[in-house]
Design brief:
The chain has two domains: about 1-100, no CATH class; about 110-390, Purple Acid Phosphatase, chain A, domain 2. The chain has ten helices and 15 strands. It has helices at about 1-25, 35-60, 70-75, 80-105, 120-125, 130-140, 185-195, 215-220, 245-250, 315-320; strands at about 110-120, 145-155, 170, 200-205, 230-235, 255-260, 265-270, 270-280, 300-305, 325, 335, 340, 355-360, 360-365, 385-390.
Length: about 400
């Protein structure tokens, strides 16, 4: 009997944390003001800790006999919450199983090769950290914030125009210039990006966190080079800037192309590449939705969408994009063996934490990103990806 009680308690604890980590995920996918998100986040943290503590206190201090015919007895005891947690546990297991199945089924859509794993600290010629808190976190065992995984992913796309066979795109995301990591850190990342010599480079949002770091643009982003252009959009952290237009201008003055403000198109032989950005829900596009629809008169067109959050996958499918590149979720930042990531700022929870996903006709790549506002990464190193387009036979 004691073992059964312990098992039920353990299941309830897991279910409890499943409920409130999911609430945390959904919160950070919202387009609310940061002050509102901070307040709600503190409430979630508080209730996540208080409910188990209150349950333990009630168990050891409740009367031996309770009259459960009285409604107030149910309200004042945590017993009403236990069945909710047991159901949440079952739902969490089903989600986990679904995500694992999706992961394995999507392996047919790509092939991944790790080109190198770099300890940026060993290569640094200047300090990489500029904040005491980040310096302490960097010493935490297993923290990978100063590591960088450079990989190549061959993505297999249906009916890829022959002109684009082998076309390469370097996917960067979530650089998070907070001032906690120095420009020397980002210069190493940019150096690695240029060494890939991709045909195109895209940055999928969350570039700046504070206005003072916009001044770093020239020494960092001014060095990016790609034959067919360097493209960017902004994300939710960029909205925290006091002067967002100044950040856009700083990047466009360096030759980067702003897909959050307009679409772009390039021609390769007989194939055109239509490039668009989606910064929703944080920024509204100046373009009408109709302008993102495919042109039925164009036969050889490849449609590429850059979205900060992978939550826009349904919008991408609706507008018939062939490829969508996203970030925002950082791979979860903390990934446990077997279980995987615990939190991810998405309506879908940890489903799109990172990796490759397919929803006809869109193939989506979600980057783990480069940095973050929380300087902790366990089993989830920063990622720089070269994407190679391949025709799926």
């Amino acid at each position: 009997m004691t073992l059964l009680i312990l098992l039920l308690v353990g299941i309830a604890v897991v279910g409890h944390f499943a409920i409130w980590t999911r609430a945390h995920c959904i919160l950070h996918s919202m387009a609310w003001k940061q002050e509102t998100i901070d307040i709600v986040e503190q409430f979630i943290y508080a209730i996540t800790l208080i409910l188990p503590a209150y349950t333990a206190w009630w168990y050891f201090n409740s009367p031996s006999e309770l009259d459960f015919s009285l409604p107030m007895v149910w309200v004042m005891t945590p017993l009403f919450y236990l069945p909710v947690c047991w159901v949440a546990f079952i739902v969490a297991i089903l989600f986990w199983w679904s995500h694992r199945s999706e992961f394995y089924s999507n392996q047919a859509n790509y092939n991944e090769t790790t080109l190198c794993s770099i300890d940026l600290k060993e290569r640094a010629k200047a300090p990489l950290i500029n904040h005491w808190k980040t310096s302490l976190l960097a010493k935490f065992p297993g923290n990978q914030i100063l590591s960088l995984t450079v990989n190549r992913k061959e993505l297999y796309l249906k009916q890829l125009p022959s002109d684009l066979e082998g076309f390469t795109i370097t996917h960067l995301s979530d650089l998070h210039l907070t001032g906690h990591l120095t420009s020397a850190f980002y210069q190493q990342v940019i150096e690695q990006a240029n060494q890939l010599q991709s045909d195109m480079i895209v940055i999928a949002g969350d570039i700046f966190d504070i206005d003072s770091c916009v001044d770093w643009s020239a020494e960092i982003f001014g060095k990016l080079q790609a034959k067919h252009g360097v493209y960017f959009i902004l994300g939710n952290h960029d909205k925290r800037l006091k002067d967002v237009p100044a950040a856009r201008t700083a990047l466009t003055n360096l030759g980067l192309i702003d897909l959050g403000s307009n679409c772009s198109q390039i021609q390769l032989s007989e194939t055109s590449i239509f490039l668009a950005g989606n910064e929703r829900p944080w920024f509204n596009s100046p373009l009408a939705d109709e302008e993102f629809k495919p042109d039925p008169c164009l036969k050889n067109q490849f449609r590429l969408l850059i979205s900060h959050t992978p939550d826009r996958i349904d919008w991408s499918v609706e507008h018939q994009f062939d490829l969508m590149l996203a970030g925002h979720n950082h791979g979860g930042q903390i990934r446990l063996p077997v279980i995987g990531p615990l939190v991810s700022p998405s309506h879908h929870g940890v489903r799109f934490a990172s990796g490759v996903f397919y929803s006809d006709p869109t193939l989506m790549h979600v980057s783990r990103g480069i940095a973050g506002s929380h300087q902790i990464r366990l089993n989830c190193s920063p990622e720089l990806t070269q994407i190679v387009l391949k025709n799926k036979e």
